[in-house]
């Protein structure tokens, strides 16, 4: 497979997910040379977590486009991780996704995240998979629930 450029923008800081949550998080980001997903995480200057993600041939659903479940898996990991990176030890309780446009595979896209609210143990994270310019493929609201430290 040809080289995939997952570099971030100027001012983004590389973010080491395994250093924060351990090495169990392999389903989406665990195979950086593979044909499923390739992922790089960053923090923006406002500290929001952002990901650059390549959807490889193994994510195909509709011909030449990403399977909805592959996008759900990405949003589950990235939005959950956004809560962890903001200091909340959570699991995802509810993930509500709107698929807006078919996402072509074999290209790098971006996932942006925002912590919308914190109410007791409930942390609401919003995010989108988009081209980083204007085209939004998928939007999601992710309800995370704080757990006891494990
Ligand atoms: C053991 C794991 C260690 C992990 C350590 C490192 C992991 C590193 C992770 C890296 C980043 C993450 C990336 C991947 C994220 C995943 O994929 S996590 C895996 C997928 N998620 C799951 O399997 C979660 C399964 N569900 C559960 O475990 C339990 O249902 C939960 C979410 C812990 C909640 O159970 P609970 O602690 O008994 O809480 P409960 O009292 O029912 O609810 C608390 C509040 O939340 C509300 N609530 C709960 N669920 C819902 C819901 N579905 N809809 C609406 N409201 C809800 C309740 O109404 C309640 O509200 P209030 O009454 O306080 O207003």
Automatic annotation (TrEMBL):
It is an enzyme of class 3 (hydrolase). It catalyses: tetradecanoyl-CoA + H2O = tetradecanoate + CoA + H(+); hexadecanoyl-CoA + H2O = hexadecanoate + CoA + H(+); dodecanoyl-CoA + H2O = dodecanoate + CoA + H(+); (9Z)-octadecenoyl-CoA + H2O = (9Z)-octadecenoate + CoA + H(+). Belongs to the THEM4/THEM5 thioesterase family. GO terms for biological process: fatty acid metabolic process. It is a peripheral membrane protein. Keywords: Apoptosis, Cell membrane, Cell projection, Cytoplasm, Fatty acid metabolism, Hydrolase, Lipid metabolism, Membrane, Transit peptide. It comes from Malonomonas rubra DSM 5091. One of its GO terms (cellular component) is membrane. The keyword Cytoplasm applies. Residues 65-136 form the Thioesterase domain. It holds the Pfam family 4HBT. Its EC number is 3.1.2.2. GO terms for molecular function: thiolester hydrolase activity. This is Acyl-coenzyme A thioesterase THEM4. InterPro entries: HotDog_dom_sf, THEM4/THEM5_acyl-CoA_thioest, Thioestr_dom. The keyword Chloroplast does not apply. It is found in: Cell projection, Ruffle membrane; Cytoplasm; Membrane.
């Amino acid at each position: 497979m040809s080289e995939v450029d997952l570099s971030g923008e100027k001012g983004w800081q590389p973010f080491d997910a395994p250093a924060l949550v351990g090495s169990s998080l392999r389903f989406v980001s665990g195979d950086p040379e593979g044909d499923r997903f390739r992922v790089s995480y960053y923090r923006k200057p406002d500290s929001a977590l952002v990901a650059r993600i390549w959807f490889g041939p193994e994510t195909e659903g509709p011909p030449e486009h990403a399977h909805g479940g592959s996008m759900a898996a990405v949003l589950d990991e990235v939005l959950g991780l956004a809560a962890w990176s903001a200091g909340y030890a959570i699991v995802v309780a509810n993930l509500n996704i709107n698929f807006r446009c078919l996402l072509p595979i074999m290209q790098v896209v971006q996932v942006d995240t925002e912590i919308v609210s914190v109410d007791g143990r409930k942390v609401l994270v919003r995010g989108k998979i988009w081209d980083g310019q204007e085209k939004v493929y998928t939007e999601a609201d992710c309800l995370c629930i704080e757990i006891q430290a494990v």
